[in-house]
Specification:
The complex is a heterotetramer of chains A (346), B (282), C (492) and D (518). Helix content of chain A is 72%, strand content 0%. Chain A has 346 residues and is mainly α. Chain B is built from 11 helices and no strands. Chain B is elongated. Chain D is of the alpha/beta class and 518 residues long. Chain D has 19 helices and 20 strands. In chain D, 51% of the residues are buried. Classes of the chains: A mainly alpha (346), B mainly alpha (282), C alpha+beta (492), D alpha/beta (518). Chain C: GO terms for molecular function: peptide transmembrane transporter activity. Chain C: Pfam families: SBP_bac_5.
Chain lengths: 346, 282, 492, 518
């Protein structure tokens, strides 16, 4: 069987390699420098990601020109279109051309749709981003209070019930849940649309309504995870010395948890929130299909099937950017919330 | 640590028992299913549960029980293979980062960052366009996604272990970084990895379902639970049974694995409750 | 199945109770599965383009009606010279493009010069190759000189690929189409919908609808829900498996009609073992058409025995050429030297009928010893592998071009069928104008390819539309791709 | 009337008794100390008084505060705590909320007790600077944090200050300062003190009355001097005896230099991968020293002075930035120590709980250094292990067991056995007894002295415990901020300290328990 670890010893570990008292006052580490360093890492990550995307897509089988012209087109027509689309240039020229273009904000022209990719992506982001935000907010609104309630009622029936609910929530595939939601709230009750999206500028209310069901479908598993994480974090924090200190000051247990526990418990939750954004982005790609939402995921999906390379790679890098930026922002937030990190650099 | 102690955690026993039962059901399909799943008899489709077909038949007249057995196997196989990729690459990466530190650690962290920046569905789309959809695509996509998860967990655990005096003692005894990683770090983060693996396994099963649902995963005539859901989707209003069977199977397997993971966490080490919080992964 | 009925009934009851909340109006929302990549029908092959724009935004000199017959379009009449080489069209007067510019013979000449230009990106350029010259006689008259007689010329002029575009707007048609049709383009929310509005200055009879919205919903379950919830008023081609939801529902009408889609088991005739006639005959005997039709189209397909649409007057029923007979198939395979069968790949494009038929055929072939490996692929890859590189054993695809038996005369076409007799007959057919003679030749070709078992002939795709019961005027058949709005209207 | 009266207190967890039948009373204004080793139940007793026991604790018996039983209601109890009790805990790092500024935390305590205490004056009272109020806990040193804790405890102007091991996480000098502060404040405010510690000297220095606890029971209680001078209980006698260090070193003849450290420096770059933003921290600054064969040299200094870094370089766990070391005349710079030379060196760690891999048997752990000697036959290995474990007075059968089966003292013996297995000539001991209970420290030190005598070992002891150093060392080196500032024989050095640090260290020495004059 597995070894039991020397758990007691961990408690005594010095925070860094020096003496166990670990006690010198530490100089503050400049926050701006920290941000600068993270920004550079962020840019490097993006560049490598762009390179990977480009290499993968350059290997793609399937000729976009052939796709556009279809089953009966002549070789000459296809060749003419290929030249017109600039597919003949050498790979490195195309790569750096692409990067340079993006830096200028010019994503190029879609091969199959014949319009500027920047605009296409912006249109789709106007759906995907609010949807992700909606899911994020919903999952927090649902998950965090439930997690707190469960932690406060630890070991009681409410806790057990909520955690069973959370287990189930994690286990239901979100696309399936989305379909069940549609059947109930759109088909049977007709409270909300079955899907589709009205552009924001046309009718913000309708646009918002269109995002509620998909947002819920996306939020369910994340809310369940959040509830569990929140509960565990809070239960953990409850056992910490400073809660005892707070109680010694004259707070009751629950007051101590509210005043001192929540903020500390929020640290692990913040990590999870950062990670969740990436999963939500991945989730939108699937859920957009269920609710026929014109999001970035479906744009990539369609573009791949149409072999619209320029569009695929730019849309993909935007998704990657969204995920990386979230991680970056999470890092910064963490630094804001946790003063201990303001001097560290790892 | 012995079995009796493990058995004192009812959630572990229930979860592990149920998950094993499903896995066994899948494994049996390797040698025997009530009916061959490739055998299509359209005239026999949409039969309800009866003695000949315990779970009825699907839209092509295939036996649902056989499909569920085979689909469960595929789902497990995909999730497990992806796990092997994640553990096989991620754990050595994390260990190397902790044992060598410096540039190696920097590199591992950056590789994790880049890998993590690609949502698994995007990886799946890219691979599917390169190599066509299929189980292998799903395995790779989920596996690649698992790599940074395990790299981070392994690095985090190993860094905590590396500060222990016995690691210094190992170095004093002349052990190199690789020997330290293999002798001291790996065995001591094993429980952490096992717990994370249970979680990733359940996430892998969900991810497989998602990928198959959008057509990037398992392809006919093979089947998986996700593919069964996809096939039954448009028939849901007419024959809801066809969707409920694979859907419930997924839910039950994932719950079983998650309960087993929770139980393992409690049983192996109470401290993991705090460290193994990466439940968001997936 | 007992469990399902109550649920379906409950759903129906609910719908009855709530009723179609949509107020009767002159607007319609149509669900279509595929979103067009662009909206210029003269610069792309996607069927989805025509679904939105054909006869709605754009019009040709002629137009095809719902029975497949050629009707006057922008040209109110035409004369054909004795030799069949000169066509003179008289154009309607007072026609304007949606941007207000006028339409005249120059636009016609521009359109066809563009199709035939060196750098043309027209997908059907080959169809218009017989055109030697387009001459503007006067603003209302235009003359076409052909290099050889072409029996399908007037039909081809009515296709989406030959709609008339204006030089001022042609370059932007991909994203902002400007034509002469009864509906003008308003906006395209990519990934979501295209909105058209009635073009009031339209030259012809004004349509009843004032606004039409095409919603792009690829998922059948989602489309089902949207129809049930009243978010969509109808769709021209609904997945047959879920038609049962609407069949007995008085809120909806189900329109079953014909299409030009011959669904075939495309066979690589140039490759072993399919180059052996006995192997192809064996495969033909191994196909149980009825089971495929039941399984893949829920009974809505029409069996075919050759590459020809059953509703066409020239059609010859050849489904009995190689009846379903596994024993005969095995015998033929043994005779061809494959007593234990063989293995082959079956490449499937991303359409439901192909994926389902593929599974069923694999099961049927397995019974005679042919082991098929199913390979699913995206259209782009299918086009490259199968159509471009002819790197395939078997495939399943529906050929949706009307009267496209001529593809059997092209030895370079993907299935690699090289038969001088068919090639000669096709040439005669193209040059023949006499109806009776054309029918005889067409039937001869049908018979030859059926007997040669060039491909496995499966079924003619049906058009299965689902519409709000209060809508009328939709095309039941699909002789050409498009959802023509012209006659659609609400009834009380 | 007694301020606190405890009558037949029983505390148990899952049926296991942690405190049994404990009765005591604390008078208003007195300083009461509880002495006990880890697991004796002394902290639980303190927590019980404050109503802060863990949820799963089963409690019986009664505790009265100012004659009234403690309220059962959580809210009433909390208010009582807030107004009348002040508490100081062992680990000021974890006991303070890491996300709140010190000032806010003190302010909260003042606000809760409605004492109207002024934060600035509290901060001044505990000897912190005004700008410390705006800092986060991690920006303070250990001593400063503990002062902040005390300020927090004082904010409510409590009747009773409960201090639970308040100094055991601090170094000697800081410990003395904090103890002085507590004593001074209690005296000035006339506050009752309940002081809990395993350190007999600290208790003796602070308390007028003490109780001695062992395995949940109060074995003896009485006036401090009475108890310590004439302990009645056997256990108390043992504790008192163990707290006195006897000099074990004998004057030995020293041989040739074994270890020479020549102008060694160690710098750490901080700031990570990117070249800018890096600062250099010089942990060890041009240190030179020589240790002769058979000598026992002690390196003392406050935490962060660089003594551990120096030790790590000497044993080859870290590289020097400049300078070099010689073992037996052979030069090395740290990690480049060749295996055979490495076998001549070993290290005993401070914490016996983390120095064994929990997944390996003791035998496996002990055998690990043997491969430095090349390929030994299995018989030879067995002999080595056997000899090593016998030499520390343990049973060879223990080789097949796992670390968690042993107590702290046993583990430290096993750690010493591991250090002996290659039969080294130089053994570096990093705080070898400070993590051990008082009662076993003496045994381990005796063992070390015996081994040194039997095997002619050379010791380098890293410590801040001057008593232990005086008892063990032939020569003492005093280190501060990376440099060696003074050196000499312990008797001379401690009698006539020259350097300010040495003087401070001496001043911080708590008086011997029996020397305390009340």
């Amino acid at each position: 069987m597995l070894p039991k670890r020397a758990t007691n010893a961990m408690r005594h570990l010095p925070p860094c390699g020096g003496g166990r008292e670990g006690g010198q006052p530490r100089p503050g580490f400049p926050v701006t420098l920290f941000i600068l360093r993270r920004l550079l890492t962020f840019a490097a990550t993006l560049f490598v990601a762009a390179l990977i995307i480009f290499i993968l897509l350059d290997l793609l089988p399937g000729d976009p020109a052939r796709f556009i012209l279809g089953i009966n087109a002549s070789e000459a027509s296809v060749a003419a279109l290929r030249t017109q689309m600039g597919l003949d240039a050498p790979a490195h020229e195309r790569f750096f051309g692409w990067i340079a273009g993006m830096v200028r904000g010019d994503f190029g022209i879609s091969a199959t749709q014949r319009v500027a990719i920047g605009g296409l992506i912006a249109e789709r982001m106007a759906v995907t981003l609010p949807l992700t935000m909606m899911a994020m907010v919903l999952s927090m609104l649902i998950g965090l209070p439930l997690g707190i309630v469960a932690a406060m009622r630890r070991g009681k029936p409410a806790d057990t019930g909520l955690m069973i609910l959370a287990q189930t929530g994690i286990a239901i595939p979100n696309f399936w849940f989305g379909m069940l939601l549609t059947l109930v709230f759109a088909v049977a009750l007709r409270w909300l649309p079955t899907g589709g999206f009205t552009p924001w500028h046309e009718n913000p209310g309708a646009a918002f309504r269109g995002l509620i069901l998909p947002g819920l479908a996306l939020a369910l598993p994340q809310a369940s995870i959040l509830a569990r994480v929140m509960r565990t974090a809070l239960v953990d924090v409850t056992g910490q010395d400073f809660i005892r200190t707070a109680r010694a000051k004259g707070l009751t247990r629950s007051e101590a948890i509210w005043r001192h526990g929540l903020r500390n418990a929020f640290l692990p939750v913040l990590t999870i929130l950062g990670l969740q954004f990436a999963f939500l982005i991945a989730g939108t790609i699937i859920v957009e299909n269920v609710f026929y939402l014109p999001g970035l995921g479906r744009l990539i999906f369609t573009a791949v099937s149409e072999r619209d390379l320029t569009l695929v790679r730019s849309a993909t890098i935007v998704l990657v950017l969204a995920v990386t930026a979230t991680m970056f922002i999470t890092d910064l937030l963490y630094t804001l919330v946790d003063p201990r990190l303001r001097r560290q650099n790892a | 640590m012995n079995w009796q102690r493990l058995l004192r955690h009812p959630s572990l026993v229930i979860g592990l028992g149920a998950a094993t039962a499903f896995a066994l059901l899948g494994l049996i399909s390797l040698v025997w299913t009530p009916y061959p799943i490739e055998q299509i008899v359209v005239a026999r489709r949409f039969l309800g549960p009866d003695p000949a077909h315990w779970l009825g038949t699907d839209h092509l007249g295939r036996d649902m029980l056989s499909l569920v057995m085979s689909g469960t196997l595929t789902s497990f196989l995909v999730a497990f293979s992806a796990l092997v990729i994640g553990v096989g690459i991620g754990v050595p990466m994390g260990l190397a980062a902790a044992a060598w530190g410096g540039a190696v650690e920097w590199l591992v962290l950056r590789i994790s960052d880049v890998t993590f920046a690609f949502p698994s569905v995007v990886i799946a789309i890219l691979i599917a366009t390169l190599a066509g959809p299929g189980e292998l695509n799903a395995i790779l996509a989920i596996g690649i996604f698992n790599i940074p998860v395990f790299a981070r967990v392994a690095r985090g655990g190993a860094l905590a272990v590396a500060t222990q005096d016995y690691v210094a003692a190992g170095r004093l005894a002349g052990l190199g970084n690789a020997a330290i990683a293999a002798r001291h770090l790996l065995p001591n983060i094993a429980s952490l990895i096992i717990v994370q693996a249970t979680i990733q396994l359940s996430l892998g099963i969900l991810a497989e379902a998602g990928l198959s649902y959008i057509g990037l995963g398992t392809q006919a005539p093979a089947t998986s639970l996700g593919l069964m859901l996809r096939d039954s989707q448009s028939l849901f209003l007419i024959h809801p049974w066809l969707g409920i069977v694979p859907g419930l199977t997924i839910v039950l397997i994932v719950i079983a694995l998650n309960i087993a993971g929770d139980g393992l966490r409690d049983a192996l080490d109470p401290r993991l409750r705090r460290e193994g919080l990466n439940h968001g992964a997936g | 199945m007992n469990v399902t009925k109550p649920l379906a009934l409950a759903a129906t009851a609910l719908l009855l109770a709530t009723g179609a909340a949509w107020a009767q109006s002159s607007e319609v929302r149509i669900g279509v599965a595929l979103e067009p990549p662009a909206l210029d029908p003269t610069a792309g092959a996607a069927e989805a383009i025509d679904v939105v724009v054909y006869q709605n935004i754009f019009e040709g000199l002629t137009r095809i009606d719902q029975n497949g017959a050629v009707q006057p379009g922008l040209a109110e009449s035409w004369e054909i010279a004795e030799d069949g080489l000169t066509y003179t069209f008289s154009l309607h007067e007072g026609i304007t493009f949606h941007d207000g510019t006028g339409f005249d013979a120059e636009d016609v000449k521009f359109t066809f010069d563009r199709i035939l230009a060196e750098d043309s990106v027209n997908a059907q350029k080959a169809l218009y190759e017989p055109i030697a010259a387009v001459n503007v006689v006067d603003p209302q008259t235009v003359e076409f000189q052909l290099s050889r007689p072409d029996g399908l010329f007037l039909f081809n002029l009515g296709r989406g690929d030959a709609v008339i575009v204006a030089p001022e707007s042609a370059d932007n048609n991909a994203s902002e189409p400007i034509g002469t049709g009864p509906f003008a383009f308003v906006q395209w929310d990519r990934g979501s919908r295209v909105i058209l509005e009635r073009y009031e200055p339209y030259w012809g009879e004004a349509p009843a609808l004032t606004k039409a919205t095409y919603l792009f919903i690829s998922d059948t379950a989602t489309l089902t829900n949207a129809l049930l919830a009243g978010d969509v008023d109808g769709t021209n081609n609904f997945a047959p498996e879920a038609l049962a939801v609407f069949e007995n529902n008085p809120q909806f009408k189900v329109l079953v009609g014909s299409t030009e889609g011959e669904t075939i088991l495309g066979t690589n005739n140039a490759k072993e073992p399919f180059s052996d006639l006995r192997v192809r005959q064996a495969m033909a005997h191994a196909l149980n058409r009825q089971e495929i039709i039941d399984g893949a189209t829920y009974g809505y397909g029409v069996p075919i025995g050759s590459h020809f649409a059953p509703h066409h007057p020239y059609y010859l029923d050849l489904t009995g050429t190689y009846p379903y007979d596994p024993d005969a198939a095995k015998a033929l395979l043994a005779e061809a030297g494959y007593p234990d069968g063989f293995s082959a790949t079956l490449k499937l494009p991303p359409v439901a009928y192909a994926r389902l038929s593929g599974q069923i055929i694999a099961s049927q072939f397995a019974q005679v010893g042919i082991k098929l490996e199913l390979i699913s692929m995206e259209w782009a890859q299918w086009l490259e592998d199968v159509l471009g590189n002819k790197d395939f054993d078997l495939t399943i695809v529906a050929h949706v071009e009307p009267f496209d038996i001529g593809i059997y005369a092209d030895p370079n076409y993907y299935f690699g069928y090289d038969n001088p007799d068919v090639q000669a007959l096709n040439e005669t057919l193209n040059a023949t104008i006499d109806e009776g003679e054309r029918q005889r030749i067409a039937q001869e070709v049908q018979t030859i390819i059926a007997e040669d078992a060039v491909n496995g002939y499966l079924f003619e795709l049906a058009q299965t539309g689902v519409w709000n019961a209060k809508l009328d005027g939709m095309w039941q058949n699909a002789p050409i791709e498009g959802v023509v709005l012209r006659d659609i209207h609400w009834v009380e | 009337m007694a301020l606190v009266e405890i009558d037949k207190l029983n505390i148990s967890f899952d049926g296991r008794a942690a405190v049994s039948d404990l009765s005591l009373s604390i008078e208003k204004g007195e300083s009461f100390g509880i002495i006990g080793e880890s697991g004796s139940g002394k902290s639980l007793t303190a927590l019980a008084i404050a109503g802060l026991l863990p949820d799963n604790a089963k409690v019986s018996g009664s505790i009265r505060f100012e004659g009234a039983p403690l309220p059962g209601d959580e809210r009433a109890m909390a208010r009582l705590r807030g107004r009348h009790f002040g508490m100081v805990f062992q680990e000021p790092m974890t006991a303070l909320n890491p996300l709140m500024k010190i000032g806010e935390q003190i302010g909260e305590a003042a606000e809760l007790s409605q004492s109207g205490a002024d934060i600035a004056s509290l901060i001044a009272e505990v000897g912190l600077l005004p700008d410390h109020a705006g800092r986060f806990p991690h920006q303070l040193s250990g001593g400063q944090r503990q002062r902040a804790m005390i300020a927090m405890a004082l904010a409510s102007a409590p009747d009773l200050l409960i201090a639970d091991e308040p100094t055991s996480a601090l170094d000697t000098i800081t410990q003395a300062l904090v103890l002085d502060l507590i004593a001074e404040i209690c005296a000035r405010r006339g506050m009752t003190l309940l002081f809990i510690s395993h350190d007999m000297r600290a208790v003796a220095a602070l308390c007028t009355r003490i109780g001695v606890m062992r395995t949940g029971q109060l074995v003896e209680t009485g006036e401090t001097q009475a108890v310590l001078r004439a302990p009645k209980a056997e256990y108390t006698r043992k504790l008192v005896a163990a707290s006195r260090m006897e000099r074990r070193a004998t004057d030995r003849l020293h041989g040739d230099p074994l270890l020479e450290v020549e102008q060694v420096s160690r710098e750490y770059g901080q700031g990570g991968f990117w070249p800018w933003g890096r600062t250099t921290l010089r942990a060890v600054d041009k240190v030179s020293l020589t240790i002769a064969q058979g000598e026992c040299v002690a390196l003392v200094g406050p935490s962060g002075c660089g003594k551990t870094t120096l030790a790590r370089m000497i044993v080859g766990l870290d590289n020097v930035s400049a300078g070099q070391m010689r073992l037996d005349g052979q030069a090395y710079r740290g990690r480049d120590l060749p295996p055979l030379l490495r076998a001549g060196l070993s290290l005993v760690f401070q914490d016996p709980f983390s120095s064994f891999d929990p997944g390996m048997t003791i035998g496996q752990s002990l055998a690990e250094p043997l491969h430095l000697l090349g390929n030994l036959s299995s018989a030879e290995r067995a002999t080595r292990l056997h000899d090593a474990i016998m030499s520390v007075g343990l049973d060879p059968a223990m080789l097949d067991r796992y670390p968690h089966e042993f107590s702290g003292g046993q583990r430290q013996r096993l750690a010493i056995a591991r250090a002996m297995v290659t039969r080294p000539r130089l053994v570096v001991l990093d705080e070898p007894v400070s993590a051990l209970d008082v009662s076993v420290r003496g045994e381990v030190l005796n063992l070390l002295a015996r081994l040194q005598a039997e095997h002619g070992l050379t010791f380098l002891i890293i410590s801040h415990d001057l008593d232990m150093v005086a008892a063990m060392a032939d020569r003492v080196l005093v280190m501060e901020a990376g440099r060696i500032v003074e050196e000499g024989k312990p008797a001379d050095l401690f009698a006539h300290p020259q350097h300010a640090l040495t003087k401070a260290l001496m001043a911080a020495q708590l008086p011997d328990i029996t020397e305390t004059s009340w």
